[in-house]
Specification:
With 121 residues, this protein is an alpha+beta fold. Helix content is 23%, strand content 26%.
């Protein structure tokens, strides 16, 4: 996520975003989804879910957004199970609720652990 934070902090006149970003390349089939949540006008927890095949395509999309919108963008790799992490690393479980079937509009509910997220769903 550091690549996205560095992108969002860059002034508008700086075009050399790619030299600071290392592309992860295409994602492996069946691997975690690289996704961007773009704020929507529906409220503080309302986002448009945009999946991407590589970090290059995600960066390209984010750079086309207005600066006011870019400030609220979140990037993540979606996992269905808890990652293997050292004990000192904090994780967050997100539940995304689609507005309608096959819609890219999602509402986000955040949890401090997977047990709470599973309980909610």
């Amino acid at each position: 996520m550091a690549w996205l934070n560095s992108l969002l902090k860059k002034p508008e006149s700086t075009p050399e975003i790619e030299e600071h970003v290392e592309d992860t390349g295409p994602l492996a089939p069946g691997g975690p989804l690289l996704a961007i949540l773009v704020p929507d006008t529906g409220g503080i927890s309302s986002f448009r879910l945009r999946p991407f095949e590589s970090s290059d395509s995600a960066i390209e999309h984010v750079t086309t957004l207005f600066p006011q919108i870019r400030r609220g963008v979140h990037a993540f790799w979606g996992l269905h199970n808890a990652p293997v992490n050292p004990d000192d690393l904090k994780i967050e479980a997100l539940v995304m609720i689609r507005a309608e079937e096959n819609s890219d509009l999602v509402y986000i509910v955040s949890f401090l652990d997977l047990e709470s997220a599973y309980s909610f769903t």
